[in-house]
Write a structure and sequence with these properties.
globular
């Protein structure tokens, strides 16, 4: 399911030209589909924390698959641009529920292997983000009708999600029990805020690199095909990094994985600032960024076990970072030129490293 979600997210960009032609809209208007997806995903991440019914508590993954199928089917048949946006929003609600629920289950349900399993879960998302655009290219000139196939796939995956709901019940029961424990809410709340900032900066760094690598490569003299391929290479590096992290995670403390990876990110980006081969160095940064999303969630679970629905709050922070920081880098580029992008992204990474250091200090004070 996570690979399928990765493919869906990666399809929106390549579909933009077809949507523009179909609905006769301009570039700024067609970009609203990303806003619809982001808002829907943010709501989906929050829904399991807001809605408390026995029926849904045991069927979140099945319900999420149904929402993905409903949204995708509506998007395939949408007669107007407003309908497309509403359908994308519904699809994204299911997307967000899957993201928070599956990550929570994997972080809570595998004991000492949680880090390894969470890395493999997110590696599967990377597989989908690579395969999706490739399949789209093989399809020729796809249109919104492609979402009919996505709806069919979501329906086919729903029985597997029902089995996963049953299999994960023990893990989520344990997680819910842990979240109801009392604690020092002032200090644990401060620690949770630090994790939100950290995740926002981590995902912001990753999305800024993914979003601006092609632009940097074009400025460096690459052809459009070569520049676009560099973005694919970045996602490939993220995938490889997650597999490597899954193999090594059980041998290292979670805090060491997060802080060590951030040090490597800062080192790669420092080289990119002073290197004429900046686009290729940015690609290699994906290896260091790869373990951070899952490792941060595992670190959160170990640090703030008493904070109810902490995963949803922190993943919500990730969505904010994914929207905010690439846009800020774009403003920097607009003001100072393309060469200013690597230093701007390096600044975001430095801030993430500082946030991780603050978390480490706060954890020691709470111990």
């Amino acid at each position: 399911m996570f690979a399928f979600l990765g493919a869906i997210q990666a399809l929106y960009g390549p579909l933009l030209p077809g949507l523009q032609r179909t609905f006769a809209i301009d570039t700024s208007t067609v970009g609203l589909i990303f806003s619809a997806h982001g808002l829907g995903a943010l709501l989906g991440i929050s829904v399991p924390s807001i809605v408390h019914t026995p029926l849904l508590a045991r069927r979140w993954l099945s319900a999420a698959s149904g929402l993905v199928a409903l949204g995708a089917g509506a998007l395939a048949l949408a007669p107007s641009w407003l309908t497309v946006l509403l359908a994308a929003f519904v699809l994204a609600v299911g997307f967000g529920i899957h993201v928070v629920r599956l990550n929570s289950v994997f972080v809570a349900g595998f004991g000492d292997r949680s880090m390894t399993m969470a890395q493999l879960l997110n590696a599967s998302f990377s597989i989908g983000s690579i395969i999706g655009p490739v399949a789209l290219g093989l399809a020729g000139a796809p249109s919104q009708a492609l979402f009919g196939a996505i709806a069919a796939c979501a329906l086919l995956l729903t029985p597997l999600c029902a089995l996963a709901d049953r299999a994960s019940r023990a893990a989520t029961t344990t997680l819910d029990a842990a979240e109801r424990l009392s604690g020092d809410w002032a200090r644990t709340g401060l620690l949770l805020c630090a994790f939100v900032v950290l995740m926002s900066l981590v995902v912001g760094t990753e999305n800024a690199i993914a979003g601006w690598t092609t632009t940097l490569a074009l400025a460096a003299g690459y052809t459009y095909t070569g520049a676009a391929n560099l973005t694919a290479v970045f996602f490939g590096c993220v995938f490889i990094g997650r597999l490597l992290a899954a193999g090594l995670a059980h041998r290292l403390r979670t805090s060491a994985v997060v802080i060590g990876a951030l040090v490597c990110v800062v080192a790669f980006l420092s080289v990119a600032v002073f290197s004429r081969g900046a686009p290729t160095v940015l690609d290699e940064t994906g290896l260091a960024l790869a373990p951070l999303f899952a490792a941060t969630l595992v670190w959160l679970g170990a640090s703030v076990p008493s904070m109810r629905h902490g995963n949803a709050v922190v993943i919500g922070g990730a969505l904010v970072g994914s929207a905010l920081f690439p846009a800020l880098v774009g403003r920097v580029i607009g003001s100072f030129g393309v060469a200013a992008a690597p230093p701007a992204i390096l600044g975001i990474a430095f801030a993430a490293l500082a946030a991780a250091a603050v978390i480490q200090v706060l954890r020691r004070k709470l111990a």
